[in-house]
Amino acid sequence: MPQPVLRREAHLMATDPSSTRFEKLFDAMDTDHDGTLKAGTFQTLVRRLGRSGGMQKSNLEQSYHEFWTELMRHHGDGGYSLSKQQFVQALQALAKDTSTRGLIERMSNTVFDMANTGFEDKLSKDEFVRFFKAAGGSDDAAALAAFTELDYDGNGAISRADFNRGMKTYMFAPASSTNSSIVFGAV
Ligand SMILES: [Ca+2]
Ligand SMILES: [Ca+2]
């Protein structure tokens, strides 16, 4: 049985630049705008993203379920939902916990697989924009900005390596330079 991880002091967390990214992620995920996230929040995300169904959809459900379980473990106070502040603190604690690196990588890969509808192991601009809109984005300009941000080698497509690097940057970068929550499947 995994033990809850102690949370940091709130006043220390407030100075962490990643809190801005994680607050935005909360807002993108809280689609019913009730100020809380619950396990069911991720089912809504899967429904939005998972038009094709099948194996990829169940992999995504599994990844999000593991992610939620880890978030609640890092929250450590029990209960069934997280407020924005609780979500940000739990995600910051999760990001600092090296034992969750495998989970982060699996999530990145399953979200990538969901976005990738073609046969090649990369996202074209069209695939990416479709994925961005399914994830809640409405703005073509924002989709293209996120595409450019994630196309680290600038070859006009988002490879799996590009996408995974985007997820790592999102989770672990100290600076607030990367703001796109698309790597989580939510915009
Ligand atoms: Ca909600
Ligand atoms: Ca690329």
Automatic annotation (TrEMBL):
It comes from the Bacteria. SUPFAM superfamilies: EF-hand. InterPro entries: EF-hand-dom_pair (IPR011992), EF_Hand_1_Ca_BS (IPR018247), EF_hand_dom (IPR002048). SMART domains: EFh (SM00054). Residues 17-52, 138-173 form the EF-hand domain. Transmembrane segments: none annotated. Gene3D superfamilies: EF-hand. This is EF-hand domain-containing protein.
